[in-house]
Design brief:
The complex is a heterodimer of chains A (221) and B (302). Chain A has 221 residues and is mostly helical. Chain A has seven helices and no strands. In chain A, helix 1 packs antiparallel against helix 2. The longest helix of chain A is centred in the first third of the chain and has 33 residues. In chain A, 43% of the residues are buried. Helix content of chain B is 35%, strand content 22%. In chain B, the strands form two sheets. Chain B has a six-stranded mixed sheet with strand order 6-7-8-3-9-10, with helices on both faces. A four-stranded antiparallel sheet of chain B has the order 2-1-4-5. In chain B, helix 6 runs parallel beside helix 9, helix 7 packs across helix 9 and helix 9 packs parallel to helix 10. Chain B is globular, with a radius of gyration of 25 Å. The chains are: A mainly alpha (221), B alpha/beta (302). At the A-B interface, helix 3 and helix 6 of A face helix 11, helix 12 and helix 13 of B.
């Protein structure tokens, strides 16, 4: 294998490791919320440091590759998109910490019907698919992620309205509901992060930006 | 209502999304002074290149050296006031095609050419075409700078002199204009009578460009003009190319892909005598349409 190909593999492997860590954090966050586990919440926050270290390492690798290898075409797209994917993953970690911090303040549960669990699982699924799309160079799966974002947004709206209703009907709920509003906002942001990663995967694979489709209808070649 | 738990509310959602209305808000003073206006589409390609009329048109061109076919069914257009670069591995036919454009291949024995090359309205290979005036319209700069063993002044004036121009004022004006055009005037204006051989490699190459400019060509054909130059001299020639395209149309053969990316509006990739792909340079280098182009520009060829 050429040296440059090895370096590109290192970059992909690094993103994979970083994403794996973020997925573990999401799982632990879901568990911390469900089990009211302060220990798991603290574990999430401790893991964030590793994610930050990966970000620094991969940022440096990308800049070095740009400076030293003058990449073009598919290699260039991989490196340029990696520079955007890495901070998205790092941000997922931050959102997990924000949720984990609240894990013990949302009990006893006020939401029924497993809505909160569903939001955590759907968001987790989007992140997994986005990472799988990156690893497997799977444009179809990347599009699935982008389409799934609407469902999470809808769930967010539904839970938000339910929380408002609960707060109005029972003032004792207000504290937990306030925390929950921030929890679902963070899940919703993680889903956006997964969407952004999926858009970068499409750019790597197809060479066209998948962002802001409404601006691109007439400029596509 | 008191909220228990020491939680910093500000840490959530650290990057708030601006309200859509803000995107259309008036610019602040600094942005306005800097001339920055909301414009999401900033192509590197000079838009004038996209609409420029065609100056060179190659149609179904085949070239044979004896039995060996060196160019295979080439179809290509070069827009006026644009820079087109030809890239590809050694022996791919890029220099051969460049030499077809002003009939430099006529000088080689046993060459057979089919197809058509149009320079404006002139059919380059039509029997009645005057080759001398053709080469005057399409000047050439070679890989190795080749100044004549004469003074700087005489090198630049040479083309006009052999056209019969003897008027000293006309010649002086042409020499100054051409040396300025090639970005060399300031460096040599006080030693025009000195031998051109005393110039540095980069200066000699710019002198050759000045010599090509003196006869007021429409097109400048460059065959690896920087391959013998150091990075500083190369940068000067590249800057010069970008300036020259305002007045001239430039076709450049280069082995340096970063050079093609830096100076050209369009790039054409050749392989084994075939034109594999041509298109806007930024498109070709970020998202080529052909697998072979991708392999070549990413260094995975062969």
């Amino acid at each position: 294998m050429r040296q440059f190909d090895q370096e590109l593999k290192d970059l992909r492997d690094g993103i994979l490791a970083m994403a794996g860590l973020a997925e573990q954090m999401i799982d632990l966050t879901n568990q911390a919320l469900g089990e009211r586990s302060q220990a798991k919440a603290e574990q999430v926050m401790a893991m964030d440091r590793s994610l930050d270290e990966w970000e620094l390492k991969l940022d440096r690798l990308c800049v070095d590759l740009l400076a030293l290898r003058s990449p073009a075409a598919g290699d260039l797209r991989l490196i340029a998109s990696s520079l955007k994917i890495v901070p998205e993953i790092e941000r997922i970690g931050d959102h997990c910490c924000n949720i984990a911090r609240r894990a013990t303040f949302v009990h006893p549960p006020i939401l029924t019907g497993g809505l909160l669990e569903r939001m955590g699982q759907e968001t987790r699924g989007m992140v997994r698919w986005a990472v799988d799309a990156f690893i497997g160079s799977d444009a179809g799966l990347a599009r699935t992620v982008i389409n799934a974002d609407d469902s999470v947004d809808e769930l967010y709206g539904q839970i938000y309205r339910e929380l408002l209703r609960l707060m109005m009907s029972d003032p004792l709920c207000i504290e937990r509901a306030s925390h929950l509003i921030l929890v679902i906002k963070n899940w919703e942001r993680i889903a956006d992060q997964a969407t952004n990663i999926a858009e970068e995967v499409l750019f790597i694979l197809e060479g066209r930006s998948a962002k802001h489709a409404y601006l691109q209808s007439d400029s596509a070649e | 209502m008191m909220i228990t738990g020491a939680i910093d509310m500000d840490i959530d959602d650290p990057r708030p999304v601006p309200e859509p209305a803000l995107l259309h808000a008036p610019l602040d003073g600094a942005a306005r002074r800097a001339g920055i206006f909301p414009q999401p589409d900033l192509p590197l390609t000079d838009p004038s290149v996209l609409s420029a009329p065609t100056l060179l048109k190659v149609e179904r061109l085949n070239l044979f050296y004896g039995e060996k076919q060196a160019l295979d069914d080439i179809n290509l257009q070069v827009a006026r006031h644009s820079v087109m670069s030809f890239i590809g591995p050694s022996g791919c036919g890029k220099s051969t095609l460049l030499r077809c454009l002003n009939r430099m291949n006529d000088l080689i024995d046993d060459v057979r050419i089919e197809g058509r090359v149009m320079m404006g309205d002139t059919d380059v290979y039509a029997p009645g075409t005057d080759v001398i005036s053709l080469r005057k319209r399409a000047g050439m700069v070679f890989q190795k700078s080749n100044p004549f063993p004469k003074s700087i002044y005489e090198n630049v004036a040479y083309g006009l002199r052999i056209q019969g121009q003897g008027d000293r004022v006309v010649l002086e004006e042409a020499v100054e204009r051409s040396l300025k055009g090639a970005g060399l005037w300031e460096e040599v204006k006080d030693r025009l009578k000195e031998s051109a051989q005393g110039l540095s490699g980069g200066q000699q190459q710019r002198l050759c460009i000045a010599r090509a400019l003196a006869v007021r060509p429409e097109i400048i054909l460059m065959d690896e003009p920087c391959s013998a130059l150091d990075p500083i001299a190369t940068a000067r020639v590249e800057e010069l190319i970008l300036e020259l395209k305002r007045e001239f149309t430039i076709v450049i053969v280069t082995h340096n892909m970063q050079q093609a990316a830096r100076v050209s509006d369009h790039t054409a990739f050749f392989w084994m005598g075939k034109l594999i792909e041509t298109g806007l340079t930024e498109k070709l280098f970020t998202n080529p349409g052909h697998r072979m182009t991708e392999d070549y520009i990413t260094g995975r060829f062969g």
